[in-house]
Amino acid sequence: MQRTEISAYGEFGLIKHLTDKFKIQNESTLKGIGDDAAVLSYENKKVLVTTDLLLEGIHFDLVYVPLMHLGYKAAVVNFSDIYAMNGQPKQMTVSIGVSKRFSVEDLEQLYAGMELACKKYGVDLIGGDTSASLTGLAISITCIGEGEEGKIVYRNGAGQTDLICVTGDLGSAYMGLQLLEREKIVFAANDQAQPDFEGRDYILQRQLKPEARKDIIELLHEKNVVPTAMMDISDGLSSELMHICSQSNAGCRVYEDKIPINYQAVVMAEELNMSIVTAALNGGEDYELLFTVSLEDYDKIVTMEGIAIVGHMTKPELGLQLVGREGEEIELKAQGWNSLK
Amino acid sequence: MQRTEISAYGEFGLIKHLTDKFKIQNESTLKGIGDDAAVLSYENKKVLVTTDLLLEGIHFDLVYVPLMHLGYKAAVVNFSDIYAMNGQPKQMTVSIGVSKRFSVEDLEQLYAGMELACKKYGVDLIGGDTSASLTGLAISITCIGEGEEGKIVYRNGAGQTDLICVTGDLGSAYMGLQLLEREKIVFAANDQAQPDFEGRDYILQRQLKPEARKDIIELLHEKNVVPTAMMDISDGLSSELMHICSQSNAGCRVYEDKIPINYQAVVMAEELNMSIVTAALNGGEDYELLFTVSLEDYDKIVTMEGIAIVGHMTKPELGLQLVGREGEEIELKAQGWNSLK
C-alpha cells in the first residue's frame, strides 16, 4: 500500500487535501474553512455546542478499529449529543494531532469516515486544526447545532411521574468491544488465528460504527412529543439516569425485564460468562437516547417503533431503584466508564 | 506542595471542581456546562467559531511554561482569532487530556489561567471534555464569538492599493522563546544556574502571556474604520501576508524599516547572533493583527496609537516584495512555524 509522508504536504496543503471532498449543505454556514474563524447564521434558532476529545490508547485501539470507522464514530458521537438536546447538528470543527506513524493515506481514511457521517447527517465541516503529535492520534471535535426556542430538551425537566423511555437496545456496543478485545488477545498469541466474527455482525457494528438517533428525534417531532428530559446514553443507562434524577430532583424505578437487549449481545455475554444486564446498565457507548415524557404521551409513545418504556420517575426520596425479574429492588449505582479512574 | 491525584475526583466531580469559579458574563449564554450541549442565543448576530489543539512537547514545554500562563495563553490565542474577524469572543469550550503526571493542583493552575483570560475578555466557559491521556497534556479549545452583519472582516477583501497595517511589534514572542530555550540548556548543564532574565521582561511576557488585540478592534470600531482584510499574526508576518495576498488575489510591498520591533527583541537577537527582521517575518506567536484598509482611511489610521503602516497591496503580478533598508527588493517567502514539517 502506498505511503505518503505527512511532511510532504504543509499544514495548509494537508488541510485542503483532506477537506476538499466535504460539501457545504446548510444555509446557516456562511463561511467554512479558510479564515481565522468560521461564520454562521442562526437568526431564528438557538445555537447548540458540544465537544469531545478522543485520544489513542484511551478511547480507541487502532489494532481493531479501522480509521474510517473511527472517523465516522468520532463525528456521530458528537451529533448524538446535539440530538439529545432535541436539536439538529449543522456544523463541526475537527482538530487532529498525528504522530509520524501516520501517513497521508491513513488520514484520508479517517476523513473519509467523517465525510460519510457528515453527508448522512447533513453536517458541514467548517474548520479545525492539524498538528504533529509526539505519540499517537488525538481527535478533538466540536459540533454546533440548532434548536428551536421552547423545544430544547435539558436533563432537568423530568416530572416525578414521567415515563422513562429508551431507544434501540443497550449493552450491544459493550459486548462488541469485549469480542474485539478477546480476538485481539487470541491474535497476539497466534498471529495465524482468524477472528471468529460469524453471527456477531450486529454487536460489532454497534461498537465500530454506531449511529445517532436522528430518526427518533424526527419521529417525536412528527408525533408532536416533546420529552421533558433527555440525554444520550454514552456512559451506560445507570450513569445517565443519575444525571437526570439529580438534575430533575427526582428518583426513578426501572424494570430489568423492560430494558431492551439484542439477542447477539445476550449470546456473547453468555459465552463470556458476563451479565448482560450489567452491560446494559454500565457498558456505555450505545449512543441511544434516554428520555422522559409525561403520562399524557403514553398512547403516542407506546405505538412508536424503536422506543421502549423501561420505568417511571418517582419522588426523590425513593431513590434510584432497579426492579429485578423476581420483583426484588436493587439500588442503581453508576459504574459507567470513566477514563480518569 | 500538596498533591491530589486526579482519580480522587470522578470526571464530573473534577469538571465541577475546576469550573466552579467561572462566572457567566454574556446574555447570549443560555446554558453552559452540565448538559449534552450548551445553548446559545445569537439572534441578531453572526456566530464565529474557531478552534485550536495544543499538545505537550509540540506546542509547549512545561519545563519553562507555568501552567497558569499556559491556560491563559491557550484561551487568548483563540480569542485572537475571533478579534481577527472583527468579532467579539463570547464563549469557549475546553477539552483536556491529562496523564498521571498531573495532579488536581496542576489543573487548578491551568484553569486559573483560563479563568483570568475569560474574566479579562468577557468570555464564558460553556463546556468541554476531561479525559485521561497516555502521555502528557492535550488542550483543545473552541471559541465562539459574535460578529455584526456587514462588519465581519475576511482575508479575501484587500484591494490592490490598500494600506497594510500591523499592530504592536513583531518578533518579540519568538525572541522570548529563544531566551527560554537558551536558559533551559544552561540549566540542563548546571542545575545551580540562575536564569538571566534581567531587562528581558517584555519579550518573556510576549512569549508566556500574550494578549489578544481587543483594544485595537474597539479603537477601529470607535473611529469607524472597517478593515478590508484582516487576520492575526500567529505564524509570522510573511506567512500571513501570503494568505491575504492569495485570498485577495493581490500582491504586496512591505518596507523593512516600517516593521515595528521592540528594543528588547533587538538586543536579544544581537546577543544570539540572529536577524531580528527574520524573527519579525517568520517568528510567529505575536498574536498581533495584520489588516488592510483603503487609502481613504489613511488619515484616521496614521493618528492611531499602536498601529504601524508597513506597506501597501499591489497588483498580483508584482508578487510579494520586501523592500530592504537600502531599497533592495526581496521576495517574501513563508517560513513560519509548521509542526508538520
Sequence-ordered SSE layout with sheet pairings:
The structure is a homodimer of 341-residue chains.
Chain A: H1 11-19, E1 29-31, E2 38-41, E3 46-55, H2 67-83, E4 88-98, H3 104-121, E5 124-132, E6 137-147, E7 163-167, H4 172-189, H5 201-208, H6 214-222, E8 229-233, H7 237-248, E9 251-255, H8 263-271, H9 276-282, E10 288-293, H10 298-302, E11 307-314, E12 320-323, E13 329-331
In total, the number of strands of chain A is 13
* Spans where pLDDT lies below 50 across 5 or more residues of chain A: none
Largest interface: A-B, 71 and 71 residues
CATH topology annotation of the largest domain in chain A: Phosphoribosyl-aminoimidazole Synthetase, Chain A, domain 2
Q: Which structural class do you get from the secondary structure elements of chain A?
A: alpha+beta
- Total individual domains of chain A: 2
**Residue-averaged pLDDT of chain A, rounded?**
94
What's the CATH superfamily of the largest domain in chain A, by name? Answer: PurM-like C-terminal domain
Q: From the coordinates shown, what is the CATH architecture of the largest domain in chain A? A: Alpha-Beta Complex
Which radius of gyration of chain A do the C-alpha atoms yield?
Answer: 21 Å
Overall shape of chain A: it is globular
Helix content of chain A: 25-40%
- Our count of helices of chain A gives 10
Assembly annotation: homodimer
Listing every helix as H and every strand as E from the N terminus to the C terminus, the arrangement of chain A reads HEEEHEHEEEHHHEHEHHEHEEE
The percent range for strand residues of chain A is 15-25%
